[in-house]
């Protein structure tokens, strides 16, 4: 094997390794927490299990539905921000640390916003449901998440 062929193989090997790392990062970012998402129908089912008065049930369902819309929008924005991180990492040429830092900061900001929205939602839902039914809702929710997590492990 001559020197040119060896160089071509080395470059090809490096390109494959970089490609593997980029694909792995994309998959990790895209699937982080995705199997823990609860659909509106599942959450509505949990609300129905609480056996609430009609008006209270409708208020809880509206709260859950409104939150579901907001959280899915933020989830999509976070996925886009994470894709941007992988684009920065996979760009040709030298890596610009300030671009990577900005991309990661943007993703962190969206993640923080998701956490803030969840906290506000949890407090609002507990206010609507009251202490006993609110605790029961989140216990049922926890059990559903645990069952899903156990099934996926």
Task: Please name the CATH architecture.
Answer: Up-down Bundle
Mean pLDDT: 85
- % residues in beta strands: under 5%
Helix and strand succession?
HHHH
CATH class assignment: Mainly Alpha
Uncertain regions: pLDDT < 50 for 5+ in a row?
33-37
Helix count equals 4
User: Biggest sheet: strands, sense, closure?
Assistant: none
Number of spatially distinct domains: 1
How many angstroms does the end-to-end distance come to? 47 Å
Shape: elongated
Total strands: 0
Say what the CATH topology is. Answer: Four Helix Bundle (Hemerythrin (Met), subunit A)
Range of helix content: over 70%
Radius of gyration: 22 Å
Structural class by secondary-structure content: mainly alpha
Q: Can you give a write-up of this model?
A:
This protein has 153 residues and is an all-alpha fold. It has a single domain (32-152), classed as Four Helix Bundle (Hemerythrin (Met), subunit A). Helix content is 86%, strand content 0%. Helix 3 (54-90) packs across helix 4. It is elongated, with a radius of gyration of 22 Å. Mean pLDDT is 85; it is low at 33-37. The chain crosses the membrane at residues 7-29. InterPro entries: Metal_resist (IPR025961).
């Amino acid at each position: 094997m001559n020197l040119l062929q060896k160089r071509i193989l080395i470059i090809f090997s490096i390109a494959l390794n970089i490609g593997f790392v980029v694909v792995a990062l994309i998959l990790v970012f895209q699937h982080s927490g995705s199997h823990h998402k609860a659909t509106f129908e599942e959450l509505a089912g949990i609300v129905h299990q609480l056996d609430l008065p009609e008006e209270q049930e409708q208020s809880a369902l509206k709260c859950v539905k409104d939150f579901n819309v907001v959280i899915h929008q933020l989830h999509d924005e976070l996925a886009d921000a994470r894709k941007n991180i992988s684009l920065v990492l996979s760009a040709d040429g030298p890596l610009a640390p300030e671009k990577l830092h900005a991309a990661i900061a943007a993703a962190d900001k969206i993640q923080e916003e998701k956490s803030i929205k969840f906290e506000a939602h949890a407090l609002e839902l507990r206010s609507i449901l009251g202490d006993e039914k609110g605790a029961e809702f989140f216990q049922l929710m926890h059990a559903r998440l645990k069952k899903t997590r156990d099934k996926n492990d």
